[in-house]
Amino acid sequence: MEQILPHLDSVFSIDCVLFGFDGKELKILLIERNEEPFKDWWALPGNIVGSDESLDQSAARILYELTGLRGIYMEQYYAFGDPGRHPQGRVITLAYYALIRLGGDKDLRPVSTYAKQANWLPITALPKLAFDHQKIYDKGLEKIKRRIKHQPIAFELLPEKFTLTQLQHVYELVLGKTLDKRNFRKKIVSFGVLKELDEKQKGVSYRAATLYRFDKRKYAKLFGKEISF
Amino acid sequence: MEQILPHLDSVFSIDCVLFGFDGKELKILLIERNEEPFKDWWALPGNIVGSDESLDQSAARILYELTGLRGIYMEQYYAFGDPGRHPQGRVITLAYYALIRLGGDKDLRPVSTYAKQANWLPITALPKLAFDHQKIYDKGLEKIKRRIKHQPIAFELLPEKFTLTQLQHVYELVLGKTLDKRNFRKKIVSFGVLKELDEKQKGVSYRAATLYRFDKRKYAKLFGKEISF
DNA sequence: AATATAGTGTGTATTTTTTACACTAAGTAA
DNA sequence: TTACTTAGTGTAAAAAATACACACTATATT
């Protein structure tokens, strides 16, 4: 988002693609703009980088202001700076993606005045986006597709305790293809970063699945080894 | 590089890690600063982004000013913006790497006044670098290590016609490990992006090797398929 | 002409990884 | 007790990765 346009040569902002998973769908958080340009359009949340904060801090602040969440996994992935990308002047923006597990829509905080509303929208049915935000989103999705194959980031979209089926579901949604159940389980277990718990899924009307947890200590020991899907 | 510091809230620059290969070693281009801060230190070449140029254009211009070269493969890879990274104020910098084949040091142009000299230095013996440029370089090397495994970028470091041994040499230098000759050739040929020429290496005092060329058309046909080393 | 030198170019067997594929077990609800 | 729904498991075949050594060829040297 780039509403504040002081008369400087250039403005430096951060835009965020916040991916959320509610157990069913992969969604991103969009805000409906209440100001020109692109009034009434949907846009990625973003803001100007403060003068005393690091880039990562700035991204975390933007996310916090919108969702009230802290400690979320975020990663910088690309800078967009075409001279024409903002109709009112030069705005260079740095894109971050974040991965968030959604427990209902309660995560949403009141939103600042420049937005009418903020909403989690499924990535399978996104509206037209303001500015070059479609490009920013596309590149973000591409990045997490690539990264989920090599880094243990899928867990960031799930609750602390999860079933293997849920984990597979995340992979399938991000990669955009179905995976074989037996092969998936074989592989994910062979990485040795999961801890099997003495606990079962609850509240389901069928056989309850075993719960697992991502084991950071085991993962730390693998340092250097490549994970690959 | 960040010499110009107008009294703005923040300054936005680009720094470049220019990787060059001379047939023997992998080198990067560094400049020796002639101004405070970090006077007499070696630093990555860089400059302020102009108000009417895109980020890629800006990076290309910086490279051109220093080397006289155009049409070089460059890629943006990370933004560095810690509040303390520049002693005189807030400077956010976007890092690019470039891959260049060196044909002797003739590529070097006269250098602007803020630098005493510019030099290609082997990456195996780099001096201490100004600002946070060591961090920027480290991340750049990491990036090309990763990218050379999946994208056909090694050719950018070689002349148009090259031998398989030269190509292997590039991979070994970038990856920092030796590769098996037979397996390397088997694999690289199986990708199907090389065109074998009716031409041999010249001027060597031993059996001349066959020359190859990177075949962009064949590569275009592979779109979507993953290359992997 | 013979020899030394230095890098080119090639094949196969073994191991590891990836893929394809289908049924039984367990728990809940009616 | 039966129907329903998802959990959980193994094996065989194919593909990919690895390990490994020697003969060939062009030139330079004597």
UniProtKB/TrEMBL annotation, chains A, B:
This is DNA mismatch repair protein MutT. It comes from Pedobacter mendelii. InterPro entries: NUDIX_hydrolase-like_dom_sf (IPR015797), NUDIX_hydrolase_dom (IPR000086), WH-like_DNA-bd_sf (IPR036388), WH_DNA-bd_sf (IPR036390), WHD_NrtR (IPR054105). Residues 9-143 form the Nudix hydrolase domain. It comes from the Bacteria. Pfam families: NUDIX (PF00293), WHD_NrtR (PF21906).
